[in-house]
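ok, trying the design again with the full structure, not the truncated one.
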């Protein structure tokens, strides 16, 4: 997905926040900011949002010497949600429609995104998602596709919300689910370390996509991942990052689960910012 002019302002704000969180001198911060704007200026036409985000965090890691600035944040996010795991499990199991509830919780968990903001209210979002209509509601279609699929590929997004992904995968009880994480740390996106921390390997086969962008950029992913992506009967994609990388993909049946966090994505999907979405790419709306 090509970067919109609004994306640059968003990147700048988040990059500033990241820089301020690190122990860097004023001169180092100034130099990093100058390189960031140079990267913007030199970006070629059609430079995608996930690709630009990757380049920014690669730049930060190289210049600051901090390979994984969100490692503690990710660990703490996972630990916090794991502490509430049994309560969420009961919340799903005791609901009138466990599958629908599990999907809603998984979408609400998408609010945990330090690449967009480090200020969010998870409990409020959980209450909203359970009482609100989805802006695009293909949940019933998703449930039917899951029941008929031999292999499911589930694309993870952020730490913390991965616990809700596990709850959803448990709920639909499929024997052959693959859970894909990033090939290396980037922002607070999930890695194999996060997946093992929450016990994702208990409900799915854990793999990585072989690349360190906060998305799924197929032309950069590993051959092993691409084979799995090609052969899976169904792909479930969590979050804006994965949507940005796959929104033009029509060859595979993909269901996008996300909370719409910015005007750019809202415009692209034809919904309001802040909406909850479960949308199949090959389903008429």
């Amino acid at each position: 997905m090509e970067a919109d002019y609004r994306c640059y302002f968003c990147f700048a704000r988040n990059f500033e926040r990241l820089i301020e969180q690190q122990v860097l001198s004023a001169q180092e911060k100034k130099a990093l900011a100058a390189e960031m704007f140079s990267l913007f200026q030199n970006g070629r036409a059609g430079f995608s949002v996930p690709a630009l985000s990757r380049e920014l965090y690669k730049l930060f890691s190289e210049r600051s010497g901090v390979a994984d600035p969100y490692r503690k944040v990710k660990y703490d996010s996972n630990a916090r949600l794991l502490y509430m795991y049994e309560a969420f499990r009961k919340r799903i199991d005791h609901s009138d429609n466990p599958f629908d509830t599990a999907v809603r919780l998984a979408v609400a968990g998408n609010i945990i995104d330090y690449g967009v903001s480090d200020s969010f209210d998870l409990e409020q979002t959980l209450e909203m998602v359970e009482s609100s209509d989805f802006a695009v509601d293909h949940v019933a279609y998703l449930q039917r596709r899951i029941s008929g699929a031999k292999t499911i590929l589930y694309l993870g997004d952020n730490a913390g919300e991965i616990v809700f992904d596990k709850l959803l995968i448990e709920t639909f009880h499929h024997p052959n689910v693959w859970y894909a994480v990033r090939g290396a740390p980037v922002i607070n996106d999930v890695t194999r370390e996060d997946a093992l921390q929450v016990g994702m390997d208990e409900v799915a086969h854990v793999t990585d996509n072989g690349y360190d962008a906060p998305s799924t950029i197929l032309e950069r992913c590993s051959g092993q991942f691409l084979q799995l992506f090609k052969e899976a009967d169904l792909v479930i994609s969590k979050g804006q990052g994965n949507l940005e990388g796959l929104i033009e993909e029509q060859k595979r049946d993909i269901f996008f689960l996300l909370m719409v966090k910015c005007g750019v994505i809202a415009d692209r999907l034809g919904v309001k910012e802040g909406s909850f979405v479960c949308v199949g790419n090959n389903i008429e709306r």
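Keeping the full-length input from now on. The mean pLDDT is 88.
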